[in-house]
Amino acid sequence: MATEKQGLIYAKIAAVMSEVGHIGKNRENQQQRYSFRGIDDAFNALHEPLAKNGVFYTNTVLAHHAGPVPTKSGGQMMHVTITVRYTFFCEDGSFITSEARGEAMDSGTKQRAKRSPTR
């Protein structure tokens, strides 16, 4: 992995953050009754400030695991974990990286989509 390069990226990310502000939990899960912010809410809020400030990002899937787990009713759900590295760049070549881990359980087939190899 490349070493982070100091430069404009820190000021640019700070500018993006000040423009985005708070992303509210404006969606509601009707079944379990909880509020959440959707991924589309985050992408929509970030798009213009990132573009305006000349910041773009790439992602790399570092780890992905999916497997069935039993439910209380005797069925099965898919338990999925993923670790992703995000790298944010700007025009002077400086960048920062961040890693995030996600976890979900689903009784549907959304997670079963084929992934293309990243190598």
Commentary on this structure:
With 119 residues, the protein is of the alpha+beta class. The protein has one domain (9-108). Helix content is 22%, strand content 39%. It has helices spanning 9-20, 39-52, and strands at 27-29, 34-36, 56-70, 76-89, 95-106. The protein has a three-stranded antiparallel beta sheet with strand order 3-4-5, with no helix packed on it. The protein has a two-stranded antiparallel sheet with strand order 1-2. Helix 1 packs across helix 2 (39-52). The mean pLDDT is 88.
Sheet with the most strands, sense and barrel status = 3 strands, antiparallel
Report the principal-axis shape.
Answer: flat
Number of helices: 2
- Counted up, domains total 1
Give me the side-by-side strand order of the main sheet: 3-4-5
What proportion strand?
Answer: 35-45%
Order of helices and strands: HEEHEEE
Rounded Rg: 18 Å
Uncertain segments are none
* Mean pLDDT across every amino acid position: 88
Helix content: 10-25%
Judged by helices, strands and strand pairing, the structural class is alpha+beta
- Ends apart, CA distance between termini: 14 Å
Number of strands: 5
Region (Disordered): 100-119
Protein name: ERF family protein
Pfam families: ERF
